[in-house]
Design brief:
- There is one protein chain.
- This protein has 155 residues and is mainly alpha-helical.
- It contains three helices and two strands, in the order ααββα.
- Strands 1-2 form a two-stranded antiparallel sheet.
- Strand 1 and strand 2 form a beta hairpin.
- The longest helix is centred in the middle third of the chain and has 69 residues.
């Protein structure tokens, strides 16, 4: 066959194939390979079971720890709420009108006035006040002043 530089036809020739030789494994070799695969699978399964057991124990431990923390904080909250209620009660007693009246009567020796002690004074509608600084005269309405004072102090 002549070859030319332009066309290389060897790539298209069919090469007679040589028969391939295959080694057939015996039953013992197949059994040993299956046993090794089984052992590997068994070891992997054991590892997975151990990991799951450790994770379960760890989760249970963390859950118990968290429950104990919640219980402690709940007890602290109850104590703090109790103290808060006690302090609110003390503040109410210190600031209450009854406590002030009792302090005035017992500690300061003051007594409540009766209606017989009230005295009303009639004033003219317009009074004048002279100041010493500049000797000016200012109009002063005493009735308006007294009604303002009475409104402030509630009667």
């Amino acid at each position: 066959m002549a070859t030319s530089a332009a066309y290389d036809l060897r790539k298209f020739e069919t090469v007679p194939s040589t028969p391939r030789i295959r080694v057939v494994k015996t039953g013992k070799e197949l059994r040993a390979r299956a046993d090794r695969q089984f052992v590997i699978q068994l070891v992997l399964l054991a590892v997975v079971v151990v990991v799951l057991a450790v994770y379960t124990v760890y989760s249970s431990m963390m859950l118990t720890k968290t429950k104990a923390l919640i219980e402690r904080k709940s007890n602290e909250l109850v104590e703090i709420q109790s103290e808060n209620a006690y302090l609110d009660y003390q503040i109410e007693n210190v600031v209450s009108t009854r406590a002030v009246e009792e302090y005035a009567e017992n500690e300061l020796g003051l007594i409540k006035f009766s209606s017989a002690q009230i005295e009303y004074v009639n004033l003219e509608n317009s009074n004048m006040i002279v100041t010493e600084e500049n000797d000016s005269v200012a109009d002063f309405d005493m009735t308006t002043f007294l009604s303002t004072i009475m409104a402030i102090f509630g009667n």
